[in-house]
Every structure is written in C-alpha cells, then in structure tokens.
C-alpha cells in the first residue's frame, strides 16, 4: 500500500516545496499579469520563462545555472517548468484562452490557500506523475516499492546520506565502490534511484540536497526537511531497523 501523504504539522510549505511554490507563483503571475503568453507551438513564452528562472529559486536550476547553459531560455530549457505546467494543467488551475493561460476559479482558490492543496499535489506528483524519459509502466511498477524507498530514506537521511549509501542498501549484491566498476544494470538502477525517487522528493520539498563545494557532476548529501515529518508517518518511525522486502 502506498504511504499516505497528509499534511499535519504547522510548516511553511511554500518555503520548503519548490514544486508548490513554483505552481503558486505561476498561477499568481497569470492572475496579475493578464495571463501567461504562449508561442505559436503552445509553449510558455520567453518573457515568462525568464521571469520563472529568476523568481522560482529552484535548487539546481537558478537563473545563473540555466543561463550558464543557454543564452536565451525557452520552456524546453527549464525542466522544473515542465513539471509545474503539467501539474497546474492536471489540477485545472489554469485554462487556455486563445494564446494565453489564465487562472481558473479553482486556480484562484489555490492561490488563496495553497497549503490545502498540498496533499493532492504531493500524492499525484510523487506516485503517479510520469517524468520526461519515464514510462507509465515503470511508474506503475514502482508503486509497490514506495514504502521501501520512503522507510529506508526515513532512517538514512536522519543524519544525512548519499546516493551511494541508499543504493548499496537497496542493491547490496551490486555495490561497487568506484563508478568505473559499475555494470550497465547497476548504473541504470542508481540513475533511476536519483531521478525517479530522490529528485521528486527534493522537488516536492521533503528532501534537501546539500551541495556546497560540489561540482555539477558530484552527488550531494540528502537530509529530510521539516516537511517530511509534517506529512509522512512511516513504519520506520516506530522501529530502529526496517527490513527491506
């Protein structure tokens, strides 16, 4: 059974969750700026993409990070914006009218009380959202393992843990100390762990990656944020060890 995500603690969700904050800022922009302009292909226009890059303050995708890779930014150059747009569309917070996106009545309700939408956003995004490069089958198959992933991270990230530590716990028979020693299968498993499990938890705001002093190619140390304890109650909260099964 999928672990329930239910906000119970008194925390500033918008400050902790890049995803909820990005969604709220997108709907607010559409509300205050007369909508978000669309290109002829239907993408969000450069004016908004630039604004989002500057104001979202998305870890790993700040305006400095993004402009280091591109002289101009289109929607396709900002991966977090793909998720934000997908989620506001999925929840019907914006509607298209000719060549602009405008807030719906539900979108205005979301702006008034974004925290009330967190449980729905978190559950849909973490368990059902299909990221770029993923398949629906893979997302469906992963559902039966989420209780294992979350309980393991719950224990390991209490004091901070690396991607390698988590991977070595999940796949002990394929633990290799050096990247050069990894098989293709091991590389795929660790890549899936990083992009299909860890990154969504970071983008949702349940984990924070400490990256000070690291290069873009290095993995950081993951810590639970206050949002984790505020919305997740897990088996491993009651026991010192959790058996992977």
The count of DSSP E runs of length 2 or more, i.e. the number of strands, is 6
Instruction: Write down the Rg.
Output: 19 Å
Tell me the number of structural domains.
2
The DSSP helix count reads: 12
Order of helices and strands: HHEHHHEEHHHHEHHEEH
CATH architecture of the largest domain: Orthogonal Bundle
Strand order of the largest sheet: 1-3-2
Span between termini: 13 Å
Structural class: mainly alpha
Rough outline:
globular
Q: Helical content, roughly?
A: 40-55%
Describe the structure.
The chain has 12 helices and 6 strands. A hairpin with a 2-residue loop joins strand 2 (94-97) and strand 3. The chain has helices at 13-16, 18-32, 46-55, 63-69, 79-90, 105-112, 118-128, 136-142, 146-156, 163-170, 184-204, 226-231, and strands at residues 36-37, 94-97, 100-103, 161-162, 207-210, 221-224. Helix 2 (18-32) packs across helix 5, helix 2 (18-32) crosses helix 6 (105-112) and helix 9 (146-156) packs across helix 10 (163-170). It starts with 12 loop residues before the first helix and ends in a 14-residue tail after the last helix. 49% of the residues lie in helices and 8% in strands. The mean pLDDT is 91. It has 2 domains: 15-114, Arc Repressor Mutant, subunit A; 130-238, Orthogonal Bundle (Arc Repressor Mutant, subunit A), CATH 1.10.10. It is mainly α and 245 residues long.
